Every structure is written in structure tokens, then in C-alpha cells.
Amino acid sequence: MTVQPITLIWFRRDLRLFDNTALQTAIRRGLPVVGVYVFDNRTDTPEQRNHRRLSFLYDSVAAFQTALQAKNIPLYVLHGQAEIEIPKLAQELHAAAVVCADEDEPQASARDNRIWHKLDSAGREMVRVDDQVVLPKASVMTHNGRPYTVFTPYKNAWLQTYSRLFGQWQPADDWPALAALQADLPDTLRRPPVLPSPETLGFIHQPTMFAGGEEAAQKQLGRFLEHINTYHLARDFPAQKGTSRLSPYLSHGMLSPRHLVFLAKQADNEGAGVWLSELIWREFFKQVLFHHPHAAEESFRQEYRSIVWENNQEWFERWKTGQTGYPIVDAAMRQLKSSGWMHNRLRMITASFLVKDLLIDWRWGEAWFAEQLIDYDLAANNGGWQWSAGTGCDAQPYFRIFNPILQSQKFDPDGQFIRRYVPELAHLGKDVVHAPWLARESIDTHGYPEPMVNHAEQREKALALFKRNDQTE
Fold first, then answer.
1. How far is 133 from 438, CA to CA, in rounded Å?
2. Is 365 helix (H, G, I), strand (E, B) or coil?
3. Which residue among the candidates 10, 341, 362, 368 is catalytic per the annotation?
4. Is 175 a catalytic residue?
5. Is 385 assigned a catalytic role?
6. Residues at site: Electron transfer via tryptophanyl radical (predicted)?
7. Residues at the annotated binding site for FAD?
8. N or C: which end of the chain has fewer CB within 10 A?
9. pLDDT in tens, 16-31
10. 26/29 Cα distance (integer angstroms)
């Protein structure tokens, strides 16, 4: 009896139907397709420790399973290690090939290479395609064939390459071909696979500020597009809903980066232009990590790899829990802890404070954000932290140090955001809420702590520390 072979699609950070490169590639191979998603059961990963992010992913996978089933594509949801589960399922389902979207994390790439060897030894193909970025990471290079390390020339080259390759972009329509293929799907695979419970997958389901799934992503995208023309005016003010709030959906692939760039260029206004630059920053950080994988573990710039950080554990705990005595920093850290998300301006402020005021290794902060963020993405998180620390490529110069009080006064002028997350200060007016310890008269701060460090003094220490290492090379 002849067994019907299939193409197995391993979905990772591409939980959508629209403009899904792996799905399109699988359909064009001409065999019935079956999907799989693996919840990693290892307890040493940030993903496993973050029940809020797992809850968001679970809701998204559940919605995606329903959407795929409407296209007659079964989605298996497994709990284990992909290195074991993918080859095993491919054998059980008689898969001729496994198709997946490439991941840019060095550890993920190494894992995929091991899986490729297992599949190859069993006579199966593994096809990896670009989907997380608009342009392939090695397609935008300098004239001498080297990767860019400065953003502005990279952006200019990126836009030129995009115009050449995607001048008239439109998503492919492979659904008619899929319907014909799925008619040959074996009867044993037509019954929808059971979605394991959160408890079975090893986490406790929690409500999140982001609804999971592609449909929710499209709704949020629609809301953002209604005010994209004012994005450049409102994006730096955390008390306002001025950012897109699309990062979780983009990070986990519920939105197509190609579609977002297309919409930004189609809008053709100043706000859309600034948002497009942010999307290109995302591409920039991903190509940096692709060409320089060592940046995932250490400073991109060699001269800063030997910095001797103070790494005060007690100070780090106070930073994590929002007890530094600097209201804007504490409000931001409490937002992160309570919601799994933080406004981008606040990510820069809190990162600068940890590195330049507390003299703590940026990798400590990067790891904490990795544990907490629903929208966690290694390249974006690493790139953002190294930019703030001054250790990355095209980073903020080390001598540029955010003053948390001035940042607070500039971007939360009325103190609205501070009062929302630091209720101890909710009764204070805008003239004192940014730095209550400087008030001319005694005020009740309901137990809110005094500043843990003197910013001016710590600034001088940070300058000396970086300058000393800057001169060692």
C-alpha cells in the first residue's frame, strides 16, 4: 500500500495565514501540508519562565490552529524539545520535507542545523526560508561586500534595495492550489489534533494586555493606522497611546513585516516615515546579529568587553522591582513587571539608568527584559541594550547619559504616567512628582524611597569607567 507523503510546516515565529513564506513554500512543493508548533519543555529558557508570554503564545497558537483547520490544514501542538519532536513527527507522518522560517538567534540556528542533519540522514529535506525580515540579511551590504555597522547608510541602502525588489509588492495567493492539495490529505490526518491544556504544557494561563492571534493583530494594526500620521509627534510620551503596540505581533509573526513596510510607504506621511525607520532599525539589528553572532553574548565593540562593572546585586533588585527612588524609572519597571510590556522611550531610560547610574553590566538588564517582555526578540532586545549602553554598533556614545529627571519632565510632563504606576506619588503635582526629594517643603511620599544614588556623581563614575576602557585599545 502506497503511503501519501506530506510536507510538514514547522511554525515558529510566523503564526499567521497572510503572507506566510513557509506556508507558501510548502504549498508550492505540491504535496498535502500539515503544521506543527512546539512548546519547548526546557526550564532553562526565558520563554519557559514567563507565564504571561506563554499565555499570549498559547492564545495565538489556539487561534492559528482554528484558522488553519478552516483551510483543512491540521496543526499539531507538541510539548518537548524540537530537536527530538520534529524528526519524530516527520517520520510518523511520512513527511518528505520539513519547511520552516529561518530564525536569527545563534542558538536557534545551531539547533536547526542539528535537526537538518537528523532529517537528512533519514532521507528527508529541511527547507528554511526568510520570513522574519523584509530583505534577506545578507542582501544589503556595503560596496566592498561587508555588512553595515552604521544605521543611516544601512537605511539608505535598504530603501534602494527594497525599491528594486519590492516596487510593486503584493502577497501571493496560493489558496486555490492548497485546496486541491489538501483533497489528498490522508483520512487519518483529517481529524483536528487536540490542543493541549496550559497545565499540560507546563505553565499557568494568565490574562495579558494583548489579545493573541492574527485577527487580534490585524485589529490593532487597523487602530494604529488610524493615527499613524501623528506617530512622530506622540511616540515618545508613555502616558499617551502614541506607539503602534504591534511589537508582540511582529515578534511572534502574527503580522508580516513585508505588509507593514508596504503600509508605511503607502501612507506616505511624516508619521509613517518615522515608523518605517523603526521597522528598518529592526532589520538592522537582525542583520547585525546575523553577521556578528558574538554580539549575543558580549559587547559588539571590543574595547568595552573588559569593563569591570560594579554589579551590585541589591541595586539590581531595586531596579527590577521599581524601587530606585527615581519616579520615571520606577514607573517604567513596574509597568514591565505588571504587564510584560514597556514603552520604547522608557526602555532607553531604564537601560541607561542601570548601566550609567548603577554601573551594572548591560547583560543583566538584557536578561531581565528577556524574561519579562511579551514581545521579546533577541536581536531587538540585544540591539536596544547595546545601543543604550554604548557598547553596540552605531550605539549612543558612552558620554551621552540620560538624566532621569530631565527625561521624566520632557516625556511625562504632567506626571500622568508616573502616577499610574507609582501610586505612592499619585497625590503630587507635576512640579514635584518627577523629583519629590527636591521639593522645597516637606511632602508625604507614603514610603516611596529616596534616590538610591546621586545621578551627577554616578554620571562622572560612568564617564571615567568608559573613558578608561576606551583608551586601552
1. 47
2. helix
3. 362
4. no
5. yes
6. 309, 362, 385
7. 231, 243-247, 275, 278-285, 375-377
8. N
9. 999 999 999 999 999 9
10. 5
